[in-house]
Backbone:
């Protein structure tokens, strides 16, 4: 039996915004936009949005403190593809490397390492969802003959916990391991962290080699998408020229969505740095309010530092179903994404 699409107001458990603007998108639906190839190279096919894509990437390069001209990226199909790309680069740089991921890493990560046939070890998580640094240190030390490839969570799926890549790097240095790679899965938090008064260490200046961010989460997009950014010197090692398209093959997929860069471009241009900063501040204020109200109601609510995610013992199934609450191991959460109102929360 066909079920009607639920109204936008009926979800609180997933990072989906409610203030979407599809005005630019609607004017381009009669164009066969295909961002095939490298966004920084000019190919035979020219009905694309590469120019807009480059502006989006330049904005994030500055936001993520990328090094000079040594950065590269593209607009992906979503966070899973961005994480796959980061792991792919790590494998090409360190074919004998060992991937370390935590129990709280996104479910797609184990799928990605199987795709890439990469050796991997799962590390314990702390109760708040952050990686257990002692377990990580001991495990890396046991396999010190293999370059460590650390998959760091900058906002875990259920609790929005953030792994400290500064601490991880110091640990690897202390173990006297010269070759390593750190990829940051910053799906939702990557668009939030740069605007915090005390941002977690996660960007290029902090030592990340690649970073993946989702476009359809905190930023907002009617079509799932994302951004992956990496050091250009590493990307150059996997690039190859393709005569058929007159372009470079540097991305995971060949043909890529030409509409999603327009959506991200419109969001960035309409809000600007100041608007995005206020977007973050408002989400944090709303989370403060929700946390206060839930605590007053006797709910045992938990929250990581600067998170817009609140997690708590799972309520009755009818409540979980009505509000589409993500639930795992007896815990549910709500995410105070942009566009959520106090009236809806009440």
Residues:
């Amino acid at each position: 039996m066909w079920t009607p699409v639920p109204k936008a107001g009926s979800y609180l458990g997933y990072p989906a915004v409610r203030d979407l603007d599809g005005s630019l998108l609607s004017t381009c639906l009669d164009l066969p936009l295909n961002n095939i190839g490298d966004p920084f190279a000019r190919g035979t096919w020219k009905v694309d949005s590469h120019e807009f894509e480059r502006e989006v990437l330049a904005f994030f390069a500055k936001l993520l403190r990328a090094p000079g001209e040594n950065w590269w990226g593209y607009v992906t199909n979503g966070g899973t593809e961005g994480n796959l790309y980061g792991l792919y680069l790590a494998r090409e740089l360190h074919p004998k490397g060992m991937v370390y991921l935590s129990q709280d890493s996104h479910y797609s990560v184990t799928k990605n390492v199987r795709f890439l046939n990469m050796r991997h070890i799962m590390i314990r998580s702390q109760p708040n969802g952050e990686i257990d640094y002692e377990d990580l240190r001991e495990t890396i030390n046991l396999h010190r003959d293999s370059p460590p490839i650390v998959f760091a969570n900058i906002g875990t799926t259920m609790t929005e916990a953030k792994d400290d890549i500064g601490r991880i790097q110091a640990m690897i240095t202390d173990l006297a391991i010269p070759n390593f790679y750190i990829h940051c899965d910053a799906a939702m938090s990557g668009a939030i962290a740069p605007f915090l008064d005390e941002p977690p260490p996660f960007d290029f200046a902090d030592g990340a080699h690649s970073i993946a961010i989702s476009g359809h989460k905190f930023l907002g997009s009617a079509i799932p998408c994302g951004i992956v950014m990496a050091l250009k010197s590493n990307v150059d090692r996997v690039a190859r020229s393709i005569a058929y398209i007159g372009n470079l093959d540097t991305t995971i997929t060949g043909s890529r969505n030409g509409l999603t860069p327009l959506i991200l471009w419109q969001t960035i241009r309409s809000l600007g740095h100041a608007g995005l900063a206020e977007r973050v501040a408002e989400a944090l204020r709303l989370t403060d309010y929700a946390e206060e109200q839930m605590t007053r109601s006797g709910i045992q609510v938990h929250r990581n530092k600067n998170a817009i995610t609140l997690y708590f013992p799972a309520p009755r199934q009818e409540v979980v179903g009505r509000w589409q609450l993500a639930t795992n191991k007896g815990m549910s959460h709500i995410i105070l994404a942009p566009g959520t109102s106090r009236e809806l929360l009440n």
